[in-house]
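Fold this sequence, please.
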Amino acid sequence: MQTPVTKSKRIAVFCGARPGVSEDHVAFARAFGYELARRGRDLVYGAGGVGVMGAVADGVLAGGGTVTGVLPRSLYERERGDRARGEIFVVRSMHQRKALMYRLSTGFAVLPGGIGTMDELMEVATWNQLSLMEKPVVVVNHRGFYAPMLAMLDHLVTEGFLTAQERGVVRSADTADEALDLLAAPGAAVLAPV
């Protein structure tokens, strides 16, 4: 069963509800959001009101884009749902949160975050690998943040647990412009060569 592809130009951004130790994570997220909106794309995100999540939403709004947040009821207080920007969907579970974000989006960008961000990344990569959907996935490796994780994916190829073609599901970019170009490229959805 394939996930329906939305006709809008919404990009889901997976990222942390925390700011991280470097102020650069928040500044970069805000700039990324602004560029996303400047290119006519809207945001789907986890509806966190602070940290990297809040910054990317602020950037999109400053750039004139629209923001759609998806938040499970159990995390409403923890992730400061009262501070979330844009239209907010409150769902029953994390599974429903991810499924709705995937359905609403035409592609996925991954900014700095923690375990939840990694979970979202790996799930959309798996869904693409299994042909459950065909939407581009781009890790934004700003200042090498995701270099160890990208090296791990390469290691999986070396060890025979992932083919080079499957590895191409997760593309990477060092800058916001490069990431947004990859998300907009025709045929960028899945199994791109590395």
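The two ends are 27 Å apart (CA to CA). The beta strands are 10-14, 42-45, 67-72, 87-91, 107-110, 137-140, 170-173.
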